[in-house]
Design the sequence.
């Protein structure tokens, strides 16, 4: 019985840790303005909200939109304001400082099978 409890606890701990890895990678890539690295976590469709437009895009379209955003908004810094998870979903809210403006940024990820996928990213003027 003790072994079963230990095994369950260890499994839960590993799953909890591994689920946070995805959002940490996305945040690190966001800080460096690396759209290609962020795109590795995209779900089949991704909702992207920018100050001038908001839509759902395929993986490849979303990557191009994000690359264009980073070209026009050179990243200076990203500060996490709040981060959390709920039932396999994770979110991160922060402030993205760019050469052009400051954006309230929201990242939403969800567990699908054995990995975290990015389903939504928002950049809203502050």
Sequence:
């Amino acid at each position: 019985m003790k072994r079963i409890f230990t095994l369950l606890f260890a499994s839960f701990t590993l799953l909890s840790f591994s689920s946070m890895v995805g959002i940490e990678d996305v945040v690190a890539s966001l800080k460096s303005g690396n759209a290609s690295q962020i795109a590795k976590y995209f779900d089949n469709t991704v909702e992207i909200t920018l100050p001038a437009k908001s839509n759902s895009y395929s993986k490849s379209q979303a990557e191009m939109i994000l690359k264009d955003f980073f070209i026009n908004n050179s990243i200076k810094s990203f500060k996490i304001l709040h981060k959390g998870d709920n039932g396999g979903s994770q979110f991160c809210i922060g402030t993205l400082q760019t050469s052009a403006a400051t954006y309230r940024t929201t990242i939403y990820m969800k567990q699908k099978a054995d990995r975290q996928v990015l389903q939504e990213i928002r950049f809203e003027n502050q």
